[in-house]
Amino acid sequence: MITLLKKAGTCSVITAADIIRQGGLVAFPTETVYGLGADATNAAAVRKIFAAKGRPADNPLIVHISNVDELRLITPEVTTAAEKLIAAYWPGPLTIVLRKTPIIPDEVTCGLDTVGIRLPADKTARRLIAASGVPIAAPSANKSGRPSPTRAEHVLRDLDGKIDMILDGGATVFGLESTVVDALEDVPRLLRPGSVTAEMLRETCGNLVSDIEAYGVPPSPGMKYRHYAPRARLTLVIGEPESAAQAINKILRAKTPGVTAGVLASAQTAGLYDKTRHVVLAAGDRNRPETAGANLFALLREFDERNVREIFAESLEETGAGLAVMNRLKKAAAEIIRL
Ligand code: TXA
Ligand code: MG
């Protein structure tokens, strides 16, 4: 298969919508990360998403709509909690889990009777969904297990030859996947932290179940379950920035010269490392975790491009967007050191 790469525009969106209607796969930009889309009502098309990504068969997809009115096709019941969330955050980087209607095949939800639904803010995404005339099922457009793509080039690198088309809309705004919230009950449950923060959700809904790590995510050190991972081995060092820099420098000094190591630092701490010996990248401003979120996945890929074998990452405080950044770093980590 030859993968078409086209700048997002009126003509290319029409071509992409035709491909979706015919059961093909199109990668498209959203304000979070690039998605790999197929007609959510076409089981055969949805199966192609799993094949192209090498995605495990038990990880359900998010269904994207272009207008709130399309919700009633997909869910039989918009709960009170969902209504509040929709009014506050749609269109935007929030996925809401609700019961599904039979129009959504089991292939999308992996047999669950619920479905994650999102109305993205990105104009290209919405034009594509509207022009297709069907809801679009889309996971992030990376090879399964790799960092989510925040640029069209990332999608091309992972999926060239495996999908029909990529709509290039440049770099995405948020850089982290959407917040996922289960809104089936009165008190919503945070399933994946994102740019719509736990604090914002709690404020909107009055209450929130948010202790994600207590839901049964594998314990931190040496965890087997890896995700969002670069090819390099990532060690996350959790502690105050200066102590983390000291600990990382101590490990780096003991390394055999010749093995390329990388440091994921911040604007404030990048100067504490030896740039002549290591690949030191600053994710963003420590005091504005959303800036780290915007760059995180692109930087993890950059370490790979620069042949880094081992990455040492500093931690952020787990508040606001920092919770989402730390969630992704913990999942990418082969090892976590707590100072
Ligand atoms: O920002 C995003 O969310 C991007 C863009 C393309 O929309 N999509 C994305 O999809 O990140 P994906 O497949 O990489 O992540 C979907 C997440 C997974 O953690 C999945 O388990 C969860 O949503 N999810 C989907 N449907 C669900 C359901 N019915 N119940 C619980 N979790 C669900
Ligand atoms: Mg993903």
Describe the protein in words.
The protein is of the alpha/beta class and 339 residues long. It folds into 2 domains: 4-210, DHBP synthase; 233-338, Rossmann fold. Helices cover 32% and strands 19% of the residues. It is built from 11 helices and 15 strands. It has helices spanning 10-21, 43-53, 71-74, 80-89, 106-109, 123-132, 152-159, 198-205, 241-253, 289-305, 321-332; strands spanning 4-7, 26-28, 35-39, 62-64, 94-99, 114-118, 136-137, 165-168, 179-182, 189-192, 233-238, 261-265, 279-282, 310-314, 335-338. The strands form 2 sheets. The protein has a 10-stranded mixed sheet, sandwiched between helices. A 5-stranded parallel sheet has the order 13-12-14-11-15, with helices on both faces. Strand 2 (26-28) and strand 3 (35-39) form a beta hairpin. The longest helix has 17 residues, at 289-305. Residues 217-225 have low confidence and may be disordered. Threonylcarbamoyladenylate (TXA) is lined by residues 30, 32-33, 35, 59-62, 95, 97, 109, 112, 114-116, 118, 138-140, 177-178, 180, 191-192. Magnesium ion (MG) is lined by residues 139-140, 148.
Task: Compile the SSE list and pairings.
Blueprint: E1 4-7, H1 10-21, E2 26-28, E3 35-39, H2 43-53, E4 62-64, H3 71-74, H4 80-89, E5 94-99, H5 106-109, E6 114-118, H6 123-132, E7 136-137, H7 152-159, E8 165-168, E9 179-182, E10 189-192, H8 198-205, E11 233-238, H9 241-253, E12 261-265, E13 279-282, H10 289-305, E14 310-314, H11 321-332, E15 335-338
Parallel strand pairs: 1-8, 2-8, 4-6, 5-9, 11-14, 11-15, 12-13, 12-14
Antiparallel strand pairs: 2-3, 3-7, 4-7, 5-6, 9-10
Helix pairs in contact: 1-6, 10-11
The structure holds threonylcarbamoyladenylate and magnesium ion.
